[in-house]
């Protein structure tokens, strides 16, 4: 699997939005000395990957997601049958630590790491 590499312009857009959120498309374009039409594709990519959130008549917000959104797409495409296992039961008195240890001992660690 190849990682998505964000362009320098996309990284600049993210940084601007982080500092000035909510930021409109016009504000972002002006800060980069470009037209709004020029950055339209960049904004689309950044919102479709979930790095930026867009709210009509408000602007763009930084979502807080990692700049490597490919793992999120991998998880979205994962089918339930690919990770189905036998259930592990714990009581409500079980600590989170003990529940995680139980999962690790049963070999479920790869699912916790997602």
Give the helix/strand layout.
Blueprint: H1 8-20, H2 25-32, H3 36-48, E1 52-55, E2 59-62, H4 70-77, H5 96-105, H6 109-112
Antiparallel strand pairs: 1-2
Helix pairs in contact: 1-3, 2-3
Q: Strand order, biggest sheet? A: 1-2
Structural domain tally: 2
Order of helices and strands: HHHEEHHH
CATH architecture of the largest domain: Orthogonal Bundle
Main sheet characteristics = 2 strands, antiparallel
Proportion in β-strands:
5-15%
Poorly predicted ranges: none
The overall pLDDT, averaged over residues, is 81
CATH topology of the largest domain: Arc Repressor Mutant, subunit A
The secondary-structure class comes to mainly alpha
What name goes with the CATH superfamily of the largest domain? Winged helix-like DNA-binding domain superfamily/Winged helix DNA-binding domain
Helix share, percent: 40-55%
> What is the rounded Rg?
20 Å
What does the model show?
The protein folds into 2 domains: 8-62, Winged helix-like DNA-binding domain superfamily/Winged helix DNA-binding domain (Arc Repressor Mutant, subunit A); 78-112, no CATH class. 49% of the residues lie in helices and 7% in strands. The chain contains 6 helices and 2 strands, in the order αααββααα. The protein has a two-stranded antiparallel sheet with strand order 1-2. α1 (8-20) packs across α3 (36-48) and α2 (25-32) crosses α3 (36-48). The model has no long low-confidence stretch (mean pLDDT 81).
């Amino acid at each position: 699997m190849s990682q998505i590499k964000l362009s320098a312009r996309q990284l600049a857009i993210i940084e601007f939005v982080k500092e000035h959120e909510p930021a409109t498309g016009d504000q972002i374009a002006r800060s980069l000395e470009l037209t709004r039409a020029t950055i339209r594709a960049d904004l689309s990519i950044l919102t479709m990957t979930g790095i930026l959130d867009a709210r009509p008549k408000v602007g763009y917000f930084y979502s807080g997601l990692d700049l490597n959104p490919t793992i999120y797409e991998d998880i979205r495409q994962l089918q339930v049958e690919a990770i189905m296992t036998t259930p592990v039961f714990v009581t409500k008195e079980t600590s989170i630590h003990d529940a995680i240890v139980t999962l690790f001992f049963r070999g479920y660690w790869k699912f916790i790491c997602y």
